[in-house]
């Protein structure tokens, strides 16, 4: 049976193929391939998605955290910028399959790990996403706690105010996710612009305080404490660079969850080029300058915007530094964490775990991960959390790129990604590609070894890159004799049709959660 058709360079399933995969235990509406007619995101859509995700408290804390551990202002900005340029490469490469075939990340992972084996990779991504979900909830709750403390002196003096604020903000996030992304359409439209204004206002306020004391920019840029010993600079620099790459290492994997809605490869590439690096550079500049200005006026290195505003002692400034993180944590959490994590968890049992049920699991994991410990210090955040999970996810990005580009030459039999048993070309052995698991284990083991063996610490300092390169090299070697899963362009599964997409049945896939999130950014 011919299962695919080609429309202006994009592929979609035929109506008969859609009918067939609906009965698969590995199918649900959230994981269904997106028809061409629903791939409507243009360059602006992709760019605004990244701008919205980049303008967040956790992104602000990247350069500020580097300053706190001893980087100078220009070293912090340069490290953040280089890290984002580096991670943009696998992001754009892994986005290609989502745009071309309309498949989300958990389904894309079935190519290399097998229909069942993809759960292992997806859950690794989901655990990290749930950790980020908890972190964003904690950051938002700190801002919410500041707002409540301004409004009520009794709240400010209450012993359990932080814990209750966290539970309240966490509950709000879970409720929004459970009800569906349509409930945040309005927030997505105003949240990012509002935060841009608030970040600018906080910058003006902090720098203005320095000038009010008769000092200037030279004092801000020259007074930041540099505590890194010369002999430890390069290991610290590479550790910070890997942490900045790891910040978006999750999106380097699950970017197909969003790129599946792009109208063309040009739109997804240009949109991401325009959106990611400039936005992160801007946040790096603002975060670094505010941290430096706060150090000049208070003598303390404050690496979180809410705490920086609290040092002013002014209720209006505290409110200014708190409203933005509240809105940013909500919008970023939905787009960057909840959608992807929900899809990953749903992939475990698509017929019984809906996106809504998966959202409850995401919320529970966000508490279990104990985000307050991950943010206990700048070192714990930059080198502990970011640096460690980057070593685990880096090899996955390498495997996906090697499989899609080097092994398959970008040719996919989409219907087979939902096919159970030996008749499915991506079933491998019992639904698992053990070769991919072996490559992942070896590629992650070396960097992680550097975390426990002091003499090999240099392996950990370049963890993400080391794991990524190892997987990129090893995977094609171990898959060299594997031919059963390959698809050539000349096979009968592909029908070439140019022009208008043939409309599929309305119930084919509906509009999955990620679609609603991105449509709100148009």
Describe this structure in words.
The chain has 522 residues and is an all-alpha fold. The protein contains 23 helices and three strands. The chain has helices at 15-21, 43-54, 57-68, 73-101, 105-113, 118-151, 153-156, 161-179, 185-212, 217-222, 233-247, 249-254, 256-259, 265-298, 305-310, 315-346, 355-368, 371-374, 378-407, 434-452, 457-461, 463-478, 513-519; strands spanning 4-7, 10-13, 494-496. Helix 3 crosses helix 19, helix 5 runs antiparallel to helix 6 (118-151) and helix 5 packs across helix 19 (378-407). The protein starts with a strand and ends with a helix.
Search tags:
522 residues; mainly alpha; 3-stranded mixed β-sheet; 67% helix; globular
Determine the mean pLDDT: 83
- Cα distance spanning the termini: 37 Å
C-alpha Rg (nearest Å): 23 Å
Helix share of residues?
55-70%
Number of extended strands: 3
Major β-sheet, in short? 3 strands, mixed
Low-confidence stretches: 181-186, 497-522
Quaternary structure type:
single chain
Any idea what the shape is?
Answer: globular
Count, helices? 23
> What series of H and E elements makes up the topology?
EEHHHHHHHHHHHHHHHHHHHHHHEH
Q: Give the strand content.
A: under 5%
């Amino acid at each position: 049976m011919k299962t695919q058709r080609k429309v202006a360079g994009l592929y979609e399933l035929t109506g008969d193929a859609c009918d067939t995969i609906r009965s698969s235990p590995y199918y649900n509406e959230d994981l269904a391939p997106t028809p061409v007619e629903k791939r409507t995101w243009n360059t602006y859509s992709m760019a605004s998605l990244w701008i919205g995700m980049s303008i967040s408290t956790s992104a602000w804390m990247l350069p500020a955290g580097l300053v706190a551990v001893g980087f100078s202002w220009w070293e912090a900005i340069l490290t953040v910028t280089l890290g984002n340029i580096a991670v943009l490469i696998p992001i754009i490469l892994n986005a290609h399959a989502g745009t071309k075939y309309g498949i989300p990340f958990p389904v894309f992972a079935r190519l290399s790990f097998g229909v069942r084996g993809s759960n292992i990779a997806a859950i690794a991504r989901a655990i990290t996403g749930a950790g980020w979900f908890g972190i964003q909830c904690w950051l938002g709750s700190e801002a919410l706690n500041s707002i409540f403390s301004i409004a009520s002196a009794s709240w400010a003096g209450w012993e359990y105010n932080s814990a209750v604020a966290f539970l309240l903000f966490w509950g709000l996030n879970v409720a929004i996710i459970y009800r569906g992304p349509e409930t945040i359409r309005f927030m997505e439209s105003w949240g990012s612009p509002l935060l841009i204004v608030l970040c600018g206002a906080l910058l003006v306020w902090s720098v203005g305080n320095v000038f009010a004391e008769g000092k200037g920019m030279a004092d801000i840029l020259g007074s930041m404490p540099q505590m890194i010993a010369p002999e430890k600079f390069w290991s610290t620099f590479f550790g910070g660079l890997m942490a900045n790459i790891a910040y978006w290492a999750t999106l380097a994997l699950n970017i197909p969850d969003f790129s599946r809605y792009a109208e063309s490869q040009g739109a997804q590439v240009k949109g991401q080029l325009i959106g990611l690096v400039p936005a992160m550079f801007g946040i790096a500049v603002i975060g670094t300058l505010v941290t430096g200005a706060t150090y000049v006026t208070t003598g303390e290195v404050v690496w979180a915007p809410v705490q920086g505003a609290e040092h002013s002692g002014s209720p209006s400034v505290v409110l200014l530094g708190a409203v933005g993180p509240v809105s940013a944590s909500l919008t970023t959490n939905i787009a960057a964490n909840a959608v992807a994590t929900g899809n990953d968890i749903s992939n475990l049992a698509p017929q019984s775990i809906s996106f809504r049920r998966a959202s409850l699991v995401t919320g529970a994991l966000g508490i279990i991960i104990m985000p307050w410990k991950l943010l206990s210090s700048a070192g714990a955040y930059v080198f502990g959390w970011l640096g460690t999970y980057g070593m685990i996810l880096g090899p996955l990005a390498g495997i996906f790129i090697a499989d899609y580009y080097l092994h398959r030459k970008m040719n996919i039999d989409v219907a087979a990604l939902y096919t159970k048993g030996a008749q499915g070309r991506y079933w491998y052995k019992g639904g698992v590609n053990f070769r991919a698991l072996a490559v992942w284990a070896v590629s992650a083991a070396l960097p992680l070894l550097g975390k426990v063996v002091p003499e090999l610490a240099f392996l950990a300092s370049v963890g993400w890159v080391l794991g990524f390169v190892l997987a990129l090299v090893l995977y094609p070697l171990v898959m060299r004799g594997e031919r059963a899963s390959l698809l050539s362009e000349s096979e009968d599964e592909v029908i070439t049709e140019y022009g208008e997409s043939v409309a599929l049945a309305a119930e084919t896939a509906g509009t999955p959660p990620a679609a609603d999130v991105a449509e709100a950014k148009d």
